[in-house]
Amino acid sequence: MGVTQNVAVTFDNIAINDCYELANGKIELVVDPNKQLLDVDDALGIIDDLKYKAQALLDAKAIGDTTQYNAILKDIEKDKVKLSSSNTINDETKDFVVNNINDLLLCERQTNSNTNKRIGAINCDAVVKNFIPNEYLEEPIIDESVQLGLKEYVADSEHWEDLTPEKMRDLCLDAGVKAKVLQNPKTAPYVNELFPVRIGVIFENAVLKSLDRPKNGASYPVQNPNLNPKSVIPDAIAESGTIQEKMVSEKKTRVYYWWPNGVFIDAKFTLRAEKMIYFKGNNPKNEDQIEGFLNVLMKENNAFYTTSWLGTLFGIGTPIKKSATEANASYLVIVTPVGVNLEDKILREAGSRNIAVLQSDCQYFKKGKDVYLKVSTSTLKNDAYLRNKVRLIGTYAGGASLIDFSK
Amino acid sequence: MSGNHILKNLNPYGIKFPNYIDEIIDDLTQKFQFNKTELDMSTDSLSLFDVYFIEKKPIIDEKYINDIILGLVAYTGQSYIYRNGGHWKMKLNDDGKTWIPIVVSKYGYENEDYIAYLYSTLIEDEYPSIYAASIFQEKPNTYE
Predict the structure, then answer these.
(1) How far apart are alpha carbons A289 and A230 in whole angstroms?
(2) Predicted ipTM?
(3) Do B3 and A219 touch (CB under 8 A)?
(4) Residues 153-192 of A with CB under 8 A from B
(5) Chains A & B: contacts with CB separation below 8 Å
(6) Measured between CB atoms, which of A193, A302, A402 is closest to B54?
(7) pLDDT tens across A293-351, in order?
(8) Contacts 24+ apart (CB under 8 A), A126-130
(9) How far, in Å, CA of A347 to CA of A134, rounded?
(10) CA gap B124, B61 in Å, rounded
(11) Which of A257, A236, A279 is nearest to A328 (CA)?
(12) For A231-284, how does the pLDDT look when each residue is reduced to its tens digit (9 = 90+)?
């Protein structure tokens, strides 16, 4: 962490969900009611914001917007007062930040009064740079991508077998899914149309349960007007994230970025003989779905950042516009039965957009009449095509989910 | 890019949706030209929609789906409650505007996914299956 804080908190019966969010219980900051304190979020926010305010200050100065410039300067002074009275930040960090603010304010005032920019031992440019987001200044020392919000269940000791498309169909047959279609005189004539659809839904439902992901209820508009459909609805959404470690004032600082919509997950089932998921035309009604996924992922730039590990844990961060694909944080995860391949064009097209494609397949085991499915650990499929290969890929895997054949 | 909830601008009843269930289902019955007695809340009645899509071959585009999705949400949810118990609960989406009808099972499990399953089968499947997409759970997932 770039900003160290000594904060007293109590944890009351907390539980963390698979998105690393607080699902249950509460965390309380222990405060002395006689002191005026900033809470952790406020303190973090002020420090993170200061860097951007300093940049905005320079921008305002560059374009000669004195109103904006003076407003920001005033704002920074207010932040200084708040931070000075804060007990949630340790003295060392507080001194560092407050001293930098003092230097900044001093430099700016002197600069505005047309005196020499160099004041005593203080190099004004260097002072300002302390506040500027480091991504604008230098290459990061490390630049890793991690998958935030992933979950891998502890594998159990049952004997799991490969779930092929044919096996999935046979399990559905055994469970009476086809028989139900045939028993209803109105649906019986259309068994060839309805049975495959029902298998597909049963498969998808079991996959999402295994990944412990809710079915996504949001549609994402596709930017390319030539594609059909005009919006896409991935089966599930997950967060992606990156960590950048940079030198800031000779201190290593970790900056965490995450994108709430950085990962699209889609379950694909096919009974086609060629066992292939195609870039186009998997379904005539939904011809460009995969290209639509890539199109939307490529435009994803709603990120959050924080320098606090706690921030990532509880989804606390500052919104920022930052391209997920440029930061190596776009992922398309396709879950299929065993033996189903992804057409090379999917991998190539995604790679050219710097979107990683991961594929997971599935396994099953039977326990009496019950059949369980689990999503196997995902593998990166388009490493050869990715524009930028510097990334650490998280893996996707699921727990055992009881397949619901009631459809 | 943030997505839009699939019921955005499609639930004019807002938080009062449960009060209008009968009216919404009547409207759906007319759109599909079913007899009222056919939609008897049974699981088999859900298949009537599947057969309709195969036989009538309507052009199922976004406009068509937007016209029928609220009715299907009302019917599938209400028929589940009729057969299994439970009740409706309205949830305000993150956008602060869209009220989402949640089906709460008799054990308290809140079903929301069925709406997306309904929408997905309509927009993705060559032969949409309302029967298959009517996915409701009574209890949370458990893992072995």
Answers:
(1) 9
(2) 0.94
(3) yes
(4) 153, 156, 158, 184, 186-187, 190
(5) 132
(6) A193
(7) 999 999 999 988 877 665 555 566 778 888 899 888 899 999 999 999 999 999 999 99
(8) A127/A100, A127/A103, A128/A54, A128/A57, A128/A58, A128/A104, A130/A54, A130/A100, A130/A104, A130/A248, A130/A249
(9) 33
(10) 10
(11) A257
(12) 899 999 988 888 777 665 566 777 788 888 999 999 999 999 999 999 997 877
Dihedrals φ, ψ of A263, to 5°? -125, 125
The rounded radius of gyration (Å) of the Cα atoms in chain A is: 27
In CATH terms, the fold of domain B14-133 is Four Helix Bundle (Hemerythrin (Met), subunit A) (1.20.120)
| Contact A200/B at CB under 8 A | yes
DSSP reduced 3-state for B140? coil
Tokens (6 digits) for A226: 């030539």
Contact B138, B106 (CB under 8 A): yes
The beta-carbon neighbor of B51 closest among A190, A215, A296 is A190
- CA A140, A323, A355, A395 dihedral sign is positive
Q: Is the peptide bond before A214 cis (omega within 30 degrees of 0)?
A: no
What are the distances in angstroms from CA B131 to CA A168, A196, A219, A328?
19, 13, 22, 40
Strands (E), A30-174: 142-146, 161-162
Nearest to B123 among A197, A233, A296 (CB): A233
Distances (CA, A) of B52 to A120, B31, B46, B48: 84, 11, 10, 6
How close is the nearest chain B Cα to the Cα of A325, in Å?
Answer: 12
Query: Who among A217, A285, A300 is closest to B1 (CB)?
Result: A300
Say if residues A316 and A20 touch (Cβ distance below 8 Å).
no
Task: Please report the residues numbered 18 through 47 in chain B whose beta carbons come closer than 8 angstroms to any beta carbon of chain A.
Answer: 44, 47
